[in-house]
Amino acid sequence: MPGTSGCLVAADEPLSLKGVTHASTKWAHLGEDGLVRVRASIGRFGEEAGLQVDDAELVARTRADLRELDGIGAEPVAVHVQRWGGGLPQYGVGHGELVAGLEAAVAAEPGLAVAGAMLHGVGVPACVGTARAAAERLARVVPAAS
C-alpha cells in the first residue's frame, strides 16, 4: 500500500482497521515537511464493545494493523483519537441493489431527488456528488423563478 492514498479493509480480515488514508500521499502539501500523515478508521457495525477501551489501546491496535498492512513501525510523532460513535453509515450486503432500487423509484418521480451518505459513499466528494446530481435533476424540472 505504500505510494497509494489508502485502502479499505474487508470486514472478514483479522484486523481492527476498517480503512486507512495516507493523507500526505493523497494531499501532497500535507507531506511537505517530510512527515507521513495517516488517518485510520477503526470499528465496524456490531463491534461497539471492542471500542470501549482507552485511546492508548486504540492507538496500539491501529499501529499493529499498520505494521501488518504497510510495514509502518515507526513511533508516531503525534496521534489524535477522534471518536465518532455511530457517525458513519456502514453498508450491508446488498446495499448497491438497495440504492439502485431507490434511484429507479426516484427517477420515476419528476421533482424528487435523493442525496447523501446513504447512497454512494460517506466521504465528502461522494456526498457532494450526490448533492450536485440531485440539484441538477431538480433544476431541470423546477421552473426558474422570474
Quick structural summary:
This protein is α+β, with helices and mostly antiparallel strands. 35% of the residues lie in helices and 10% in strands. The protein is elongated, with a radius of gyration of 19 Å.
Description:
The protein has 146 residues and is of the alpha+beta class. It is 35% helix and 10% strand. It has four helices and three strands, in the order ββαβααα. The chain has helices spanning 23-26, 55-70, 95-107, 124-141; strands spanning 6-8, 17-22, 38-42. It has a three-stranded antiparallel beta sheet with strand order 1-2-3. β1 and β2 (17-22) form a beta hairpin. It is elongated. 8% of the residues are buried. The mean pLDDT is 87.
Q: What's the SSE blueprint?
A:
Layout: E1 6-8, E2 17-22, H1 23-26, E3 38-42, H2 55-70, H3 95-107, H4 124-141
Task: Work out the radius of gyration.
Answer: 19 Å
Describe the biggest sheet? 3 strands, antiparallel
Low-confidence stretches: none
Q: What value does the average pLDDT take?
A: 87
List the total number of helices: 4
Biggest sheet, spatial arrangement of strands = 1-2-3
- Kindly report the oligomeric state of this protein: single chain
Termini separation: 54 Å
Q: Could you state the order of secondary-structure elements as H and E?
A: EEHEHHH
Estimated structural class = alpha+beta
Number of strands: 3
- DSSP strand (E) fraction? 5-15%
- The rough form would be described as elongated
Share of helix, binned: 25-40%
